[in-house]
Specification:
This protein is α/β, with parallel strands linked by helices. It has 10 helices and 15 strands. Strand 5 and strand 6 form a beta hairpin.
Length: 308
């Protein structure tokens, strides 16, 4: 009994959680703030570039605007201004326009940074929210610090696997992932970005925006743990949360976010437009993302590119 108390005291003093909650320090080091993107390398980029055979490109981002379905109170407003010079400038009569954008960063196609979601105010690698959250931006985990993500992309086409769009709340777990991989011949490797095609964006976003945000098929807890174990750097899907809503355990809230972001440092890519890629059976491709460099940002509106 005394030994157990001693172990508990040591763990508490070190700031390290005990069994069942031992998700930090990170395997990338106790001071790491990047997470699974540490698995990227120049060699991976070179190999991924060899996947380009046709030169066809796919925009994976959706257009973000005032009518874009947005979680909670998030919204988008853009203001355009004519004649920013006041009157035409110079003998050549130069005129111009400008714009001002007021928006939440987590709207439309988006990247979830490691400061976005935690477990009881503790975030990736055991960092406490009070240590890095400030009203004028994050002190760590800002999305501008994420290096360019250029790597092999793998699309898991669950619509093709199941013979139709997945129903709301359907959880994609290890068995489904392995079945898709076997069917497509696309083994998942360390450093990959994995995207999941459920059909939700195609079937619901334009038809019923309210219902689109109430439920969705997506990744389950077992699937998230499996992908993280393979060393993927990011996971995305054609849904607003990437994970199944409602979750497998209705008492939980966004458990897949916790598994991937907080526990494993894997970034999430939400609202990915993978329908055209799936239509061409583009199950393996060069994935390119250079996120906008907004200092202190928790999330980022993105438009990744798939190249085949």
């Amino acid at each position: 009994m005394r030994r157990l108390l001693l172990i508990a005291s040591i763990a508490l003093f070190a700031g390290t959680a005990l069994a069942g909650d031992a998700w930090y320090p990170s395997k990338y080091g106790k001071d790491d703030t990047l997470g699974a993107v540490n698995n990227l390398s120049p060699a991976i980029v070179v190999e991924a570039a060899k996947l380009v055979k046709t030169g066809k490109t796919y925009s994976l981002g959706v257009t973000t605007g005032p009518d874009t379905p947005a979680y909670g109170t998030r919204n988008y407003q853009i203001f355009t201004v004519a004649s920013i010079f006041g009157t035409p400038m110079g003998s050549n009569k130069t005129t111009g326009t400008d714009d001002f954008l007021a928006t939440w960063m987590g709207i439309g196609s988006q990247l979830d940074g490691l400061g976005h979601l935690g477990i009881d105010y503790v975030y990736y690698n055991g960092h406490k929210q009070d240590d890095f959250l400030r009203p004028n931006g994050l002190l760590m985990f800002s999305t501008d610090k994420i290096p360019p993500i250029v790597t092999r992309g793998v699309l898991l086409d669950m619509v093709a696997l199941k013979g139709g769009n997945l129903a709301p709340g359907t959880a994609v777990n290890r068995a489904e992932i392995e079945a898709a991989v076997a069917k497509q011949g696309t083994p998942i490797r360390k450093g990959d970005v994995v995207l999941i095609h459920t059909g939700w964006l195609e079937s619901m976003a334009a038809k019923d925006k309210k219902r689109f945000l109430e439920t969705e098929p997506g990744l389950g807890k077992g699937g998230a743990e499996y992908l993280a174990s393979l060393g993927v750097v990011a996971v995305g899907a054609d849904g607003w949360a990437v994970e199944a809503i409602p979750p497998e355990d209705p008492k939980e809230a966004f458990p897949v976010h916790q598994i991937l972001i907080a526990k494993n440092g894997v970034h999430l890519l939400e609202n990915m437009n993978v329908g055209p890629l799936a239509a061409d059976k583009g199950y393996e491709f060069l994935f390119v993302l250079g996120q906008p460099k907004f200092a202190g940002a928790v999330q980022a509106i993105i438009n990744p590119i798939a190249i085949r």
